[in-house]
Amino acid sequence: MKIGVIGTGYVGMVTAVGLADLGHQVIGTDKVTEKIEKASRGEVPIYEPGLEELLNKNLKNGNLTFDPDLEKTIRASDVLFVCVNTPQRKDGSADMTFVEGVSRCIAENLNGYKLIVEKSTVPVRTSFWIKRTISLYKKGDSSFDVASNPEFLREGSALSDFLNPERIVIGAESEKAKNWLIKIYEKYKDKIHMTNIDTSELIKHASNSFLAMKISFINLISDLCEKTDADVELVAQGMGLDSRIGKQFLRAGLGYGGSCFPKDVRALVKIGEDLGLDMSLVKAVDQINKKRIQKFINLIKKALWILTNKRLAVLGLAFKPRTDDIRNAPSIDIIRKLMEEEAYLSLYDPEAAENVKKLFPEDPPNIHYAKSAYQALEKANAALFITEWEEFEKLDLKKVKKLMDKPIVVDGRNIFEPDKMKELGFEYYCIGRK
Ligand code: UGA
């Protein structure tokens, strides 16, 4: 079986490399030729631990090749994993233009049976539309199947998520499609959860929205903690001890960002509303999340009163640690708001600074990019922690205090222990605890 992977963004690149590493013959293709050229040279345009090494290994052993020609890739493949992006439209729904375009191209190049696998996050019922599109546009009498195999990888641990999956969800109808996918994932046979296609599509949106709901829930509880003597970290721990709840995704803070949760929560709302359902539970998840930024700005103002001309160290720009991705990162809105207040910002992130620079170019004294956290902290009137990089947990806090103009820390991710910070002489502001 030859596998074509269409779209070499985050999901596509990891899928292509992962499938090749499982021993399959894989061709990756993308309409952005530059991406294909780079990938063919063994370069990964994103920061993802281990990905570049594994890409190079599979380029060398011949399991993986790249080709900018979509039509050629389709014709040369038996199985096609569709990994194109499904961006958010203004009304919250997923834009399926790229999926439709790829489906038409598959139809026009259907030179024998092919299995088309949706890997991108798509609304439930998408397979119906892909099937209809291919049937409408195909010329010969070649048959095909459409299946769903949503991806659950997290940025920053994408490769290990792919290679050590907790579950492989497959939605397929025909026996042939089921058997081919079981063969592709033979190594993880006992992890396969086989369903019909609508179910598989819905599992993805439901999973992401549920995890986002946990985050918004604990953030709401953190607001309650702030109004009382409760401590959100201990509330989360106490809740998490119940295995029915589980301890993960109960970290209160600045809310969720990234390219998945915000988009998927809104898409689920739209899917449900289009089907006439009351989606207010899921809508509230989004609304609570949006309010986190202004709450953080209010916390900074509680610490500093006036922000104009204050020197602020902004630490952590990526939407979460271990990635350089800044899509929907809380840092972006926070920087914008601080600029409106005419504060002087010294920004630092271990990986994401270059990406932020494209949005907010260096412009001293308003915007300055520091080479290290310590440099950002020099003479700062306050330190703002926005992403919980491990590097920040390991900072020498005595040194930090000496470097700063005023030892004020506003921690949007509860990185530090309040008692320890007070003991060291910091004025410490955090989320849902005192
Ligand atoms: C998420 C899912 O975890 C993956 O399973 C899924 O495959 C992926 O979306 C996708 O749909 O492609 P990802 O967006 O990479 O993965 O990041 P997560 O690690 O899930 O974090 C999402 C956001 O939630 C981050 O902004 C993080 O800071 C925030 N978060 C997470 C919290 O605020 N609190 C928590 O307790 C956990």
Summary of the model, kept short:
The protein has two domains: 194 residues, NAD(P)-binding Rossmann-like Domain (Rossmann fold); 239 residues, NAD(P)-binding Rossmann-like Domain (Rossmann fold), CATH 3.40.50.720. It contains 18 helices and 14 strands.
Explain how this protein is built.
- The chain has 434 residues and is α/β, with parallel strands linked by helices.
- It folds into two domains: 194 residues, Rossmann fold, CATH 3.40.50; 239 residues, 3-Layer(aba) Sandwich (Rossmann fold), CATH 3.40.50.720.
- 45% of the residues lie in helices and 14% in strands.
- The chain contains 18 helices and 14 strands.
- The strands form three sheets. It has a six-stranded parallel sheet, with helices on both faces. Strands 11-10-9-12-13-14 form a six-stranded parallel sheet. A two-stranded parallel sheet has the order 7-8.
- Helix 12 packs across helix 13.
- The protein is globular.
- It starts with a strand and ends in a 5-residue tail after the last strand.
- It binds uridine-5'-diphosphate-glucuronic acid.
- Uridine-5'-diphosphate-glucuronic acid binds next to helix 9.
- The site of uridine-5'-diphosphate-glucuronic acid (UGA) has 21 residues, from helix 9.
